[in-house]
């Protein structure tokens, strides 16, 4: 299926391709988003592509433009939710100035290295945009979703960014949980993160939402391996068995779909943040998508209407900055699974289309200093200059 070229506004173009061949998909995307004076290209791709070929094709298609991207667990395109596709956007120099910070070797990540890297990016931005550039700047993070490094990286980035708001997503691999990829300079890399800094004269809002809240059903993590994000005991009982008991189920019934609809919530600073379970391991332990530790008190989440929740967020955005000419969105893959189970996916897809959303389904989301799950994070860009 070929999408029409979609201009979200002057200086912004969005597009996508469902071609199976990597070069054909890139050529189709380029036809839709190429424009003069491109400041940045962002793209999100299915891991089903030949990523070596896709990387070379992206480099050839946008040789002189800052280009960042990552693999996904599903794509959010100008035509709504897709899988097996390539989607992306371009922003012109009239819309923004962009700079990138890359952090490799996440398995050996050091706080000082992350802090120094982001400070260098900010210094470059200040040279071109002046010392007060932070007022009109936001940051987007794309990071290896199998690295388990999100919390450490966010700590360093948040310390360096200061008042600059950040959102982002952890790269996916279509729920295979083997290897995820971030693009840089014509190649895809694992064990890497890419941060793009965007300075714009247009109003914007970085946001987060989820349709889960805490309940009175509490549990305490009494055994855990924090480095591997594995919980071995809940309430001093084997983790998988105890969690299943709390849901009134057997361990064998704990599937990805069950985890998608029954996450847990931690309360921090008066706000609820979702902590999602990835899988039950053969030894009965539970692997989580984000940081977990012994002594943490969690509650089984209660749900609210996800469509009404997201629609309200978009209404609030319109009230604050006007109709968005673009929203870059990072949505947890578990939300997508839940939409499928509840037969709500087409309705949600229509809502995303109506609000000019481009993005991807993630293995975790970032919002300022927090790494979260089952959340929709993003930035909305207004249409009127400040």
TrEMBL record:
Which segments constitute the FIST C-domain domain? Answer: 239-369
Can you name this protein? Answer: FIST domain containing protein
Where does the signal sequence lie? Answer: none
Q: Which Pfam families match?
A: FIST (PF08495), FIST_C (PF10442)
- Where the record annotates domain FIST, the positions are 37-238
Q: Which domain of life is it from?
A: Bacteria
User: Which NCBIfam families does the annotation name?
Assistant: NosP
Q: Could you tell me which InterPro entries the record lists for this protein?
A: FIST_C, FIST_domain_N
């Amino acid at each position: 299926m070929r999408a029409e070229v979609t201009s979200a506004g002057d200086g912004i173009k969005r597009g996508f391709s469902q071609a199976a061949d990597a070069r054909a998909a890139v050529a189709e995307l380029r036809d839709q988003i190429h424009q003069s004076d491109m400041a940045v290209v962002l793209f999100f791709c299915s891991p089903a592509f030949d990523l070596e070929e896709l990387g070379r094709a992206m480099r050839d298609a946008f040789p002189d433009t800052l280009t960042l991207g990552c693999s996904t667990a599903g794509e959010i395109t100008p035509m709504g939710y897709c899988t097996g596709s390539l989607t992306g956007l371009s922003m012109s120099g009239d819309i923004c100035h962009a700079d990138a910070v890359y952090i490799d070797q996440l398995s050996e990540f050091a706080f000082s290295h992350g802090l120094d890297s982001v400070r260098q990016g900010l210094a470059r931005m200040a040279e071109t945009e002046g010392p007060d550039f932070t007022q009109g700047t936001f940051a987007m993070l794309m990071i290896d979703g199998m690295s388990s490094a999100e919390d450490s990286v966010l700590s360093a980035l948040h310390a360096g960014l200061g008042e600059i708001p950040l959102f982002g997503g952890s790269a996916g691999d279509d729920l295979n949980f083997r290897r995820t990829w971030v693009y840089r300079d014509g190649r895809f890399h694992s064990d890497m993160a890419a941060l793009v800094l965007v300075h714009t004269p247009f109003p914007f809002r970085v946001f987060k939402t989820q349709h889960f809240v805490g309940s009175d059903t509490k549990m305490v993590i009494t055994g855990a391996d924090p480095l591997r994000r594995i919980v071995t005991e809940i309430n001093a009982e084997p983790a998988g068995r105890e969690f299943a008991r709390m849901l009134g189920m057997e361990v064998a019934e704990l599937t990805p779909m069950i985890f998608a609809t029954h996450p847990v919530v931690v309360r921090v600073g008066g706000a609820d943040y979702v902590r999602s379970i990835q899988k039950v391991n053969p030894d009965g332990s539970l692997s989580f998508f984000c940081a977990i530790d012994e002594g943490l008190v969690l509650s089984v989440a209660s749900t609210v209407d996800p469509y009404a929740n997201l629609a309200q967020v978009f209404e609030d955005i319109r009230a604050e900055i006007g109709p968005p000419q673009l929203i870059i969105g990072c949505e947890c893959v578990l939300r997508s699974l839940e939409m499928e189970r509840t037969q709500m996916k087409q309705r949600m897809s229509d809502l995303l289309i109506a609000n000019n959303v481009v993005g991807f389904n993630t293995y975790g989301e970032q919002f300022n200093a927090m790494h979260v799950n089952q959340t929709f994070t993003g930035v909305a860009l207004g249409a009127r200059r400040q």
